[in-house]
Amino acid sequence: MSFGDYQLELYLGALGGTLPAHPFSYAELEADALAALPPELRTYVAGGAGDEATQRANAEAFARWALVPRMLNAHAERDLSVELFGTRLESPLMLAPVGVVGLCTPDQHGDLHAAEVSAATGVPLIGSTLMSDPLEDVAVACGEGPKWFQLYTPKSRELAASLVSRAEAAGYDAIVITLDTWVPGWRPRDLASGNFPQLRGKALANYTSDPVFAEMTGPDPDVATTVFTWVGTFGNPLTWADLPWLRSLTTLPIVLKGICHPDDARRALDEGADGIYVSNHGGRQANGGGAALDWLPAVVDAVASMGSRAPVVFDSGVRSGADVVKAVALGATAVAVGRPYVYGLALGGVPGGVHVVRSLQAEADLIMGIDGYPTLADLTREALVRTP
Fold first, then answer.
1. pLDDT tens figures, 238-249
2. Catalytic positions, please?
3. Mind listing the domains of the chain with CATH numbers?
C-alpha cells in the first residue's frame, strides 16, 4: 500500500456519503483551527518574532524551488523510507517539538494526543520539555514506535541530568538539544496580549514530576512557587564549552537543533554531536534571519565534507507534501512539521492530526510518483531548479 492511496480512501468514503471531516489546504486548516482555539492560545501558536518576516520567509522559500518532472520513470510503488540512528522509518516525516501542543486540545492533554498520532502513523514524535503531561506518559502513548525528547537545557545541571535520564529510561531514542531558546524572542503578538503560558503554570508537567525540581520548590508548592522556580532555572545560555558535559549525560544520540551555519555544523560533529537539526524555530525566536531552507544546503554540504553520515533534520515553514519533497531534495534526511499537525489536533483531535500527517505523506508520495522520483535517493539537488 502506498501513502498516496489515502486519496482513494477519501474518494470511496465520499461515494458512500462521507465527506472528509478536515481541511486539506494549510490556509483553511489554520483559519479553522485558530477559530477553535481559545484567544490566549491563538497568538502563541500562530505568532512569530518581530514583524514575522522570518516566519513568512520560511514558508515562502519553498516557492523559489521547482521540482523538474522526469517522464517514463513511473513506479507503481514508491519508497519514502529513511534510516535514522539505525531505525527504519516509512517516511521522512517527524512531528516537531511544540511546547504548547498540550494546551491545544480541549482536554489539555495534547501531548498525549500528539503521541497517539505518532503511534497511529508511525511518524516519530519529538516531545518537548514543555509538556502538559509527564514525558513518561507521553512515551507510553507513542507505543512501540520511535520517539525523541527535546531538551530546553536548564541552568541546573542536576535538573538537566534528571530530565535526560528520565527520557532515556522512558525509551526515547535520541535527545534533541534546542540552542536558540535560552531567552524568549521578541513576540509582539504575545506581548500585546500578555500571554506566556508557562508564567501561568501551564505546560510544566516535566518539571513538576521531576524529583530534582521538587527539591528546588520544596513540598506542596503553590503555582507561584512553581512558576518562579521554573523562571529561575529555565534558559541556560549554552556555549561550546558545555557540549562535553551535555554529551556525558547520555549514551543516546544527541541532535543539536538550531544549527544554520556550516561552520557550526562541522564543529558540532567534531565535538560529539550525532545529528544536526536545521531550524530557526519557525520564525518564533529571532526575526531578520531569513528562511531556514536557504541555510539547509550549505549545512548539508558541511556535514558531507567531513565524511559524516550524521542525519540532518529540517523544520521551519513546512506546510505541504511538496515542501517535504523539496527539503529532502536539498539534502534533509528527515523533515519535521510543526504548526500543521498542531492545527489538526486543535481542530479534530487525534483524527485531525492523523489526517494532516497522512495528507502530507500522500501528497509527497504522489508527487514523487507522478514526477518520476521513485525513491528518496532520487531526490537530489539536481532534481530542483531555482525559480524567479
1. 999 999 999 999
2. 281
3. 3-386 (3.20.20.70)
